[in-house]
Predict the 3D structure of the following.
Amino acid sequence: MASADQLKGLIRSYADGDKSLFLSIAMQIAAHEAKRGHGKLAEELKRLVDKAKSLGETGSPTRKIVPLSQHRGELSSLLEVSYPQLKLGEMVLSEEIEKRLVRIIKEQRKNSQIREYGLSPRRKLLLVGPPGTGKTMTASMLAGELNIPLFQVRLDTLITKFMGESAAKLRQVFSAIAEVRGVYFFDEFDAIGSQRGLGNDVGEARRILNSFLQMIEQDDSNSLIISATNHSEILDYALFRRFDDILEYSLPTQQQSLLMLKNRLAGFIEKGINLKTLATKTEGLSYADITKSVDDAIKEYIVHDKAKVDMKDLKAILQERKEIKDRNFRTQ
């Protein structure tokens, strides 16, 4: 029989999403049962643990244990679930943002221990910055690092013109946040978080914002709530103190662009090619812009059966993307 400490450890590791610790404790229980002469039970436990490990290594959907979006009626239209595998090491970030994300991940992994001291780990995050700078990827990465599902809140379904309906839907989302641990992502958050005094404000919009303020204040779940916006300047001031951390994203530096180019073009260019000159052509572009440009150049290489990615092609693609951004900026 498992000891009380082992049972508590199993529940704690499951709540924290720490699969490796969960399986380690399960193996301890199997070893304990073997010592007590319960060989058949010990062997069965070991077999189940080995199966769980092998499924995780082959990338099978072992984490798809959350049927929330599949059988809850209206809630399925409010939340779009995915199971990211992205890790922090795969992202190109500023040193400051990376340091703060590492702190968030570590606190989440020690969730139960932190709460035993009457404290709460950082889990309500506001991400601000220009489009394409890594905000959405951050939500995916945190889900991947913590081995929990990512739920994207569909604002197009959440926000309606009927009095009280949006607040009721938001209440369903927060009920799910409390019930199923995951990363809950509110993208383009300014749609519900804009200042209550703005000229285009309407009664229903105020009700949604007031409801969100109240619900996020009261929420004490184990889920992460992440809101992202490109327009932090129009957010209501009352929102900022509701978040545990505010992360400010920016366009990549030339050095970060160079690192992205090296990582993305690995295997597609001749060895020894100096990408520093190419990195200077990325000024004003976001991480997403650079990624799409490189992908377009790789597609050119594939379609035209070229030996390697042509640097002239990539320079032209980067320049074209910059011109499109400039035109869009001037017309805004």
About this structure: The first strand starts at residue 79 and ends at 82. Residues 4-57 form one domain.
